[in-house]
Amino acid sequence: VDDAHHAHHVADAHHAHHAADAHHAHHAADAHHAHHAADAHHAHHAADAHHAHHAAYAHHAHHASDAHHAADAHHAAYAHHAHHAADAHHAADAHHATDAHHAHHAADAHHATDAHHAADAHHAHHAADAHHAAAHHATDAHHAAAHHATDAHHAAAHHEAATH
């Protein structure tokens, strides 16, 4: 009986051990999935930030184009950031600010082509407007001339009829 009793407890302990393993494995799987869900969440925000960054460039490029002082606006922004970096009095921050400054220039070089194309599109738009205005004016002049010729023709015919 003692042997059977001990064997029963050993079996219970064995089953309990496996149940605990299953329980832990379940939580480990939850943690693993939660980690990936968090990664997906962060990646989503990182993508949003990336898109927002490009949208901000397009917005700034548009304003810079309107102001016709891209260089001045660019330097004013740097002076503003440099002033804050100096206020911080942290060499490490200044080092990172320098890195950011270089990275910003690299990004500017990358976006310069886009700005160039945007400027081309802006100019092309004005050229198209000028072309349409000229065409419109030519059409108006043509219609005015035709109208005048018709009026002159009618006046001459009327005059000729009156004299007979």
Automatic annotation (TrEMBL):
InterPro entries reported in the protein's UniProt record: Plasmodium_HRP
Bias-annotated ranges (Basic and acidic residues): 9-50, 63-75, 84-164
Chain segments carrying region Disordered: 1-164
Biased composition annotated in UniProt, kind: Basic residues: 51-62
Source superkingdom: Eukaryota
UniProt-recorded name of the protein: Histidine-rich protein II
Organism of derivation: Plasmodium falciparum (malaria parasite P. falciparum)
